Amino acid sequence: MRKWIVFRAEKRQPGWEDRKYAHTGSLTKTLFEHYDCSDKALPEPGYRPPEFIRVDQFADPSCSESKTHYRQSDWEVTKVEAYTPEIPVGMGFDMIVICYCKHNPINAPLKPMPERQVSVDSFGGDKEAYEQWLETQKEAASVKLSSSIPAQTQGRVSKN
Prior knowledge:
Elements: E1 3-9, E2 30-36, E3 50-53, E4 69-72, E5 75-83, E6 95-103, E7 111-112, H1 127-148
Parallel strand pairs: 1-6
Antiparallel strand pairs: 1-2, 3-4, 4-7, 5-6
């Protein structure tokens, strides 16, 4: 089931002056958005959406916007509303979920982001697409390896 889950601040929550859309600078009550295609249950009151954080000393310089850590956010869900279309209109979602949140700070520990886990399920069970992706990863690793070998030793390294 394709769900668009929007976490919004309740009225009169602190930090409103800093919650702005990047492209327009206009104020918003939207805190986070999640796109979920799993069959997991909807968030319930008490749930805290994850907050993703970049710690520069652990960041990959080739990924300028990558996040390195996460933690439970200071926002707590207080109410959940779910909307489903009566007639599918091709909007791309089976359900839109609005989670209203209050600011309730906690001292949650930072946890490192897990390594990406790619499987056949990542390709909707399409084994052929998964195999093609695996081949591109082997090619990318090969290019990275050969470009990291100093020029004076490249001719002497076996590439078995």
